[in-house]
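Practice set, problem 2.
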Amino acid sequence: MARHYLDHASTSPLRPQAREAMVAVLEGRGFEGLVPADPGRVHSEGMAARVGLEQARAQVADLVGARAREVVFTSGATEAIAAATWGALRRATDASEPRSGERAGRAARAGAPQVIVAAVEHSAVRQSSEVFADALGGRVTVVGVDGQGRVDPDQVLAAVDEAGPDGTALVHLQWANHEVGTTQPVAEVVAACRPRGVLVHVDAAQAVGHVPVAFDALGADLLSLSGHKLGGPAGTGALLVRRGLRLDPLLLGGDQERARRAGLENVAGLVGLAAACAALADQDRLADEAAAARAHTDRVLAAAANLPGVAVYGDPVGRVPQLVCLGIDGIEPQAVLLGLDQAGVAAHSGSACASEGLEDSPVLAAMGVDAHRSLRVSVGWSTTDADIDALLGALPPVLDRLRALGATP
């Protein structure tokens, strides 16, 4: 049986360009015939690796409209989010160790800095904010959303205090929601926070590689991205840090990434990430893939309108092109996923970060819709019309069969 993968929002298959670039590095063909080495060393192997790493940094920066020096490589968006949150809170509390060597404890912290989080943010944002704010004596303010999962920028700004020890250290606002696809008013929030001196972090994991992103033009202070969401390798990502902004690093132990993130860089993986970014930056590929993704998901939305007991969650228009979410009335999500899987279709349901237990989604709960019964369909660079045909052919009979099984005699 042919398989049809429609869970790209979780992870997207590796692009051929990324695979080829990684294999070349691992086989010693990518760095002037030299074996991969530590890019921090001054021998020929290390210098060749440094050249490859900096070329990769420039290719990632080119895709997202940033300067190469603003790109800090990480193991993924989760680490990037944690680093942004930790760094912003440390900056606000001035809790770094004094140069004299004297300990800096809770008593040395100047105030209770605030982190603002939209109720629909990814768990990596919510949990990093809660844990680090608690550790540094801060506080977290949650801003609600409307029925489509979108924040009101006026509500976000009403929650913002002036920057300072007791003010707002950081505003988190995702570019697009990871479960329903709704886009957020990031430009408006960023523009309003800049004059107040308040840092803004944008989680762009569901945006980069799917819609045009221009970090410097946006004016955000921090932006996180994930390699495996756009066809790069898992275990790669980046945090973009606005030029001139200095933050304490989350990971300590070395001076890699210009002392912004310790640890030997995953050179082969980052070269693969860069190759995926370069492929998207080539001519009109990003626009072409976005148009194809929109056509695929529009077909899903059109079909859903004719299915009884099926609703659309999120904004069907103001969304990223690759993702739609459906509410399935009266049927347990596990049964729907298993039915589709038996038909050769892979999709997702429930909390996007807790698939093992199919936990109720805090995103959908914040929107005021059924947080338990949902079906997320997400497409990507490798999706074909046949994949959508398979879903649309399988979903109605799966739902009919499950409803018949649950009917009262």
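Problem 2, part (b): a different protein.
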Amino acid sequence: MPEIRHRARDLGITIGTLPSGPLGAITDVPGVGVGHCTVSWGGPDLAPGDGPARTGVTAILPHDGSLFGERLVAGVFAANGVGEVIGSTCVEEWGVIESPLVLTNTHALGVACDATVRWMIGRDPVIGLDDTVIPIVGECDDGLLNDARGVHVLPEHVHAALDAAAAGPVAGGSVGAGTGMSCHDFKGGIGHASRIVEAGASAHTVGVLVLTNFGTRERLTIDGVPVGREITDLMPVENRPGSCIVVLATDAPLTARQCRRMAVRCALGLALSGSYAADGSGEIMLAFSTAQRLPRESGATLRLESVANDYMSELFEAAVDASAEAIIDSLCSATTVVGRNGNIVHALPLDRLVDVMSRYGRSVRLPVA
């Protein structure tokens, strides 16, 4: 019988006091789309290099136009850099993004980069003529469950995730790039959350998508509750140093410096769940604003609007809270996975989670079937 899983918000788990968007996802930000391609096949008896595959690709489209021709303001921050996001140095230098954001496993970085370039070339006839593109591709190591020697992500999987990227509700947990990931010694993966904020006289949306693959059990904290010290069984065969990629989108008009400041606050969200940016954990955050599209070429002086710094505090609060909730959402949504060598990473047991949270005075419950 398949596991019954629920999103964190459906259990009544909320971080902070700001209201959530209607979907509780990065796709609450208008124009942002997400797509997954899950690559999962084979049993644990396969030899290294032959399988099993427990991996995949997740793609984020920041807007539905030509990203190469209409860039978006962005910023990046690494709480610990033992991980990789291809293209992040360009974001740091230019303060813009010009491609989809693609997430996958460590050994698929090259395949995903190449496939994304080819996908963009197929849709934009000017790429490669006057200028080239460096796509944004991030990774986490799913080698505890996935046969990393087999490099099982193929170009068609990357293209499938990019083609599937759309607005609206999106899956989380053990899907796409999250298929083989672990978090705090439970099954992790893809998580979502969003917040609605007031900045000046306007309301804005902040949405977050995370790829979680970090943490130790004893440090798992949910809304201040030491859940990892209360649920001490269901441990995997080992704790492998992992990573976490956080992608934040907002429709608030921001400068590149302000986007980086938002990315920094996402790291505080990881800390709320128990991260201390361990030595082997690549914890990298990227934030972008959809408020203004910047032409790749323009003879005119560009004039950018931005929220005044005096009104950034609530946006910071949203970045922290949405990042923390998205991490918990990945745990609540993920299913138990059996992978390489028969390694098992168990899903966080939601009935026991509700019991623990209730004993600490939190108003949570399992949804009625």
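Answer key, part (b): The first strand starts at residue 33 and ends at 41. The chain has one domain: 15-296+304-347.
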